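S.,

Sequence below, as promised.
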Amino acid sequence: MNRTLVLGGARSGKSAHAEGLVTEATYLATARRIPGDTDWDARIAQHVERRPASWRTVETPDTDSLVAAIAAAPAEETLLVDDIATWLTGVIDDLNGWENRVDLTAQRDRLVQAVANSTARLVIVSAEVGLGVIPATRSGRLFRDELGAVNASLAEVCTEVLLLVAGLPLRLK
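The prediction came back faster than expected:
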């Protein structure tokens, strides 16, 4: 199985690099649309414009839809998941985790198991947030810690792991 995890910081080029790794893909978009947020709409539009018109986009903003899409993909299909950080944000939102202590292990395990069991080619994009300072807020620390745990778990089951820094890919695995 070919499973590639592409990590990088904000504006590192991780999404564009991941898209360049494949010629044809089903794009699993994890971002949630936010009514009235024109800036967010513009960011989504930039991603859409960059992709070939032949690519199919499936919106998978929650654990159930993302896991189901990965599990249903046949071996000959290529899936590009972009990105895990926005998926995690939605998971925390759904569980009201920003205000309350929550255990996200079940959601992480479901995603990692789906990736590990998939016979499709997978290219997964995620933010690397472990290189900065410790966030000053509880919600910031929660996000950093949980995303780090998801990234580490995905890296274990991926055959290739890349880190994008200043647009340059570094092979970690």
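Strands lie at 3-8, 26-29, 56-59, 78-82, 121-127, 160-165, 168-171.

Coffee later?
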